[in-house]
Amino acid sequence: MILLVLTVGCYQITFDNDTPKIEDSAMRVFVTGPGIERYANKNIKSTLTNLQTSISAMNIQFNIVGVLINLQNGRIMDVDLNDINIFLQNNSAILNVKHVVLDMIFELKLEQKTFPYLYDSGSLSLTIRDLGIQTYLSVVYGDNCKNKYILQTRNMVIVIDDFQIQFQCNNMVLLNSISLFITSYLKDLLNGELGQQFGSGLIESLLQLLNEFVYLAKSDYKSPITTDQRYFNGMQITENVIQVNSTGQRCIHNAANQRCYGYLNQTVTSTRTFFTNHDVQYQIEKLAFNSGFKLYLNQQRSFGGIQIVNITLTQFHNMGAELEVVVMFNGRSETLKFLEPVTFSLVRVNDQGTDFGRFVIRLTNLISVTSLKNEQIADLSSYFEKTFGEYDIVYANALGVSVEKAEVIYLDDNWIHIGSYIE
């Protein structure tokens, strides 16, 4: 059994809403079984640190016909995983990893303990051509904190159907005399303790990948503006999807006192149950967008004699999001109405190639009559584009999610559904 603890404490920082409830969830994310499979197959190689660490730490010693064999300092040369299958059930899942090809190399030392006391060293290359793993996966919670959850595996079965061993030593005489014995011994080891270590390392890496947790999601980590992505209701596994919930609200992260300031205390509405066949599906309530507008306007936003006083997403239509923007100019206020699409994009957040999802609304399509000139409306759009980006809703992580295949569905007045595929 493997227990992979994903978080040590509930949260390392505090929030204005420290104990959100399911009624506070303005953002929920669903990943289907095929989506998990594609995501894992695409990205598993980037998370094999556990397996590499396990192999590096191995010190395999055994004695055959008076010769002490030592294998150590193992390195992964190549891994090919392209057949990961997830079968979702209520509250659990079956994980199958098939046809894994794993190339490794170990330092090899041979020491004869009887006359003529020969000694040799070199390398042993081990290629496993068909490693299979099956295990049952469930989510376990502890300490009354659903954000602190454990992925538990049980009944793990490891099968190695095909492997190849190659030796390279300085003096092949000693090695040639015992190579068949070494091969036979390693075969038993691979289908026993050694195979279990390889399988456990792969599964731990896979679990980390599937449940990578970032509860402060930012488009720019130099900025204090963040999206609250605490999975306060933990992770739910159903027959169709894996689901997580978060508030989706923006707050200002103060690193000095480890607090995130900002909370729009409004009611999140309910909506109908709705799924598509997309690999990844995001459902966002208008409150999450309005949270960003509110935080954005904590500072005075003025340009060319015009001040933005308020921005509110009032409702969704089948053509987009309707926004009311209150501006002040020439000593009077005016309410502008915009009808804007919600778009999905990716933002690269580090040099390791990690992409976060970004949900964008801008001010480009005025639908109301105004006394502002066309140039002033254009300036408003340009100013908002330049200053609002860090306040967009950001979701970690979105490795492999297609922007081109993203589909936006306006569920009702208050909710939007965005689905896409992993490529």
UniProtKB/TrEMBL annotation:
GO function term, MF aspect, one: lipid binding
Domain of life of the native organism: Eukaryota
SUPFAM superfamilies referenced in this protein's UniProt entry, alphabetically: Bactericidal permeability-increasing protein, BPI (SSF55394)
InterPro entries attached to this UniProt entry: Bactericidal_perm-incr_a/b_dom (IPR017943)
Name of this protein: BPI-like protein
